[in-house]
Amino acid sequence: MANKGRPSNYRVNLDQLMQLYAANYTLMTRLFPASLEVGESLRLIPKVGENYLLESKELTRYTALYEIRQATSQAYNYLQPQLLVRLYHDARLAEVCASQQIFKLKPRYDYPNKKMHHQDEKHQTNQFLNDWLVFCIKQRIKVEFA
User: Which of 16, 58, 127, 136 has CB 3.0 to 4.6 Å from 65, enough for a Cys bridge?
Assistant: First the structure.
C-alpha cells in the first residue's frame, strides 16, 4: 500500500555515495584521455553492444563535464542512455548530474512522487555509470576520436 502523507524511512548513505563517486572517477580517468577539449568527442566501440559517444561539454581548472550517450538512433530518445557526468579533479570524484529526462538529480526523492523517481535515484544512476564503466573495461572498448 502507498505511503501517503507519511515520510519515508530512506536515508542517503553519503559514505557509500562518495565511494561510488571515487570509483567512477578512477574508472573514467582510466578509460578516457584527460586532454579532451570542449566540443571534442570520443566514439566508444565495445565488442558487444551499442556504440556510445563521450563529448566534452565544459572544462575548468578543477572540473570537467562530459555527456555520455548512445551513438545509434535506432530506439526512441527516451530509451537511449544519456548521462551528464561532472569530474571533480581536485577531489577525484565523478558524479552523474543529469540522466535521461532528469535534468538535476536530487540525492533523495519522497515516494511516491509525481514523476515516479526512486527514492535513491541519484545512487542508482551513479551505480549505472559504474556498471557501464566496468562493462567497458571488461569489453576492452575501442576508443577513437569522433
Answer: 58
